[in-house]
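Field reference: sequence -> structure
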Amino acid sequence: MRWEEAGVDITKFQAIPSENNPKPYYCIIPLFGAAKAEVAPLPWPRLSQPSFEALQPPIAERFDGVAPRLVAQNVKGFLGFLLGLPLKPVIRNLPGLMRDKALTFISFTILADLVRRDQIEGWDLPGVWRLPIDVGNGTPLDGNDIRLVLAELLNPAHNGLSTAKSLATATALDVVQVEKALDLCRGPEAMGTPFNLKRAIWEHKGNPCKTCESFMEGRDKPFKVWMAPWTEKPTGTNKDGAPLYSLASRKPRYTSAPDGSVGTGCAAAKRFFRGGCTSNNVLAPAAQNPRVTPHSNR
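Structure field:
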């Protein structure tokens, strides 16, 4: 007896169509009840920020145990002594030395990978962005594209400053996609809300834990992007280059001018009185990226 003759709606048992063979096929063993509903895959596990921070001490302990031995085994003599000196107890804890730079590099590498894979909490993209969106000429931009850009901004292989073109090259995205992602991450959804201590204490009835949570929630989002007030200076020219972007958490301190001179204190005062009161000649970018020029007023 055919299924139609038995009054069975055969369309309910149609198998998933194949691109290679559009002819409809049907299940030999029909599914009924709870087995009929499609089972969605479980969400990928995500690491919380406290759990990520808890990883750092074990990584540091491992570094303290391995790095001195590697130096001692591979570098002998006076050079080995010099390289091993920053790894000695107490000395190794000083900021800016080998241990601090290595642990920072490791931390940013892990964080960038987690952000790219959307496997860390706190980096959720706002739903009001309504992704995916069309950035022009039918080019889409989705959450995975934005996370690629954020991960590259976290990349410890550079100082944190990048142009839209360099980000596009590193992520294999179009420049228009990168520019739109940067614009979204500089928008109001990335900004925190002003924290009012009196109001928070009143709303939470003096509960210190709840008050602290309100303060943390009011901070800027970790994906907030900052645009430098100077631009990349092309080699051999005095023309303004492309804008430079960084995560707000990685933006450089205003400590030196493009020529390497100090940007605060006496040197800043000299530039102030010599060149007039402008933000471009008083505050200048860090020396870690000396080939930059301030934005022109346009």
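Note: The first strand starts at residue 133 and ends at 134.
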